[in-house]
Specification:
This protein has 129 residues and is of the alpha+beta class. It has a single domain, classed as Kinase associated domain 1, KA1 (TATA-Binding Protein, 2-Layer Sandwich). The protein is 41% helix and 33% strand. It is built from three helices and seven strands. Strands 2-6-5-4-3 form a five-stranded antiparallel beta sheet, with helices on one face. A two-stranded antiparallel ribbon has the order 1-7. It starts with a helix and ends with a helix.
Length: 129
């Protein structure tokens, strides 16, 4: 095998490997329990979610009873999620993204970090209400 073919083969392998390293299964939060000692109303949970998102740079838009659409834009990347909630729990589900290489249930690792931080902030705020 000549040097050019070998270099091309190695380059392709490295690109595929590097692409795979940044791809992770999409993180969804399903029926996460609302922490805290108080008895919450759905409106309390809505307020917690809206506040958590806005503090982290998410655009949060209520979409009817028990549903919020969250959007985050970081540089040239963006993601949209559907957050459903009631007085006991909430869920965060992936809707769409741009620039995050979503494919077959896998996405750039940055997305999962955004979701983890949003979940952690919601949990923190729910213990202070």
């Amino acid at each position: 095998m000549n040097f050019k073919k070998y270099s091309l083969l190695v380059s392709c392998f490295l690109l595929i490997f590097m692409y795979g390293c940044n791809q992770h299964a999409v993180r969804d939060v399903v029926n996460a329990h609302i922490n805290g000692t108080g008895h919450y109303h759905a409106s309390d949970v809505k307020h917690i979610i809206l506040r958590a998102g806005s503090e982290l740079g998410w655009g949060m838009r209520p979409e009817g009873h028990g549903v919020i659409i969250g959007t985050i834009v970081v540089r040239r990347h963006s993601a949209r999620v559907r957050i459903t909630y009631n007085r006991h729990s909430y869920s965060i589900h992936y809707l769409s993204s741009e620039g995050l290489s979503y494919r077959d249930g896998h996405i750039h690792s940055g997305y999962n970090g955004w979701i983890a931080r949003l979940e952690a902030r919601i949990n923190t705020l729910s213990t202070t209400l």
